[in-house]
Design a protein that fits this description.
The protein is built from ten helices and ten strands. Helices cover 34% and strands 22% of the residues. With 265 residues, the chain is an alpha/beta fold. The chain has a domain of 140 residues: Rossmann fold.
Length: 265
Amino acid sequence: MLQLKKLTKTYKTGDQALKAIDLEVPKGQVLALIGPSGAGKSTMIRCINRLVEPTSGEALLDGVDLVKLGATGLRKTRREMGMIFQEYALVERLTVMENVLSGRLGFVGFWRSFLRRFPQSDVDEAFRLLDRVGLLHMADKRADELSGGQRQRVGICRALIQNPKLLLVDEPTASLDPKTSRQIMRLITELCRERGLAAIINIHDVALAQMFVPRVVGLRFGEIVFDGPPNGLTPGKLTEIYGEEDWEATIEAVDDNGNEIEAAQ
């Protein structure tokens, strides 16, 4: 379980990106973080894995306070948190397989890491993951030959090969077309269900959150203003999160063929 207790981030300018956030994410639960730009969504994710240093508060992963960990403890605990990035963060000149196996770098010794010599069990798992996301036939292609959706699938495999307890996903569909965005969200949520994996997905697209995720947390100015099921995102609540808009006309969940569908339950 992940527990955030009064997690706060204040920058040197005095801007407060997170204001005493309290949040619990049980094992196996997938939630979406929504809110306007600057609401603190990416900051929250990055404070959890300490890519951004929190100012105060606690972030407990199975009882271990990530905020208090020193460098050695943080390196070890980061192996339990898979990260999927908006801009993929792949090494362009490396192959798909090499990029996936880079998720195991924190688990092998220095020389194996330096020489990229991984145990056969890691290689076998990389092949299984690539097969699961439909990229087995592209294992030897360079990352710079892939489309955006294919790159994101490689990023998903790289995160999952860590066998993490928690998946942190930062804007996984921001650079993708609508159909590919739905495919990627469907894939992430299916994989989390298959593995009993908890995940926090920072996403701008409210309709995608409503379609695929059973719990939505809305942020505004660094504070949680909504925490509930997607069908609780009424026009009034969306106005509270984002500001005035004709939400009845704007928010519409559709399937890959453009047919309106019900929100996730």
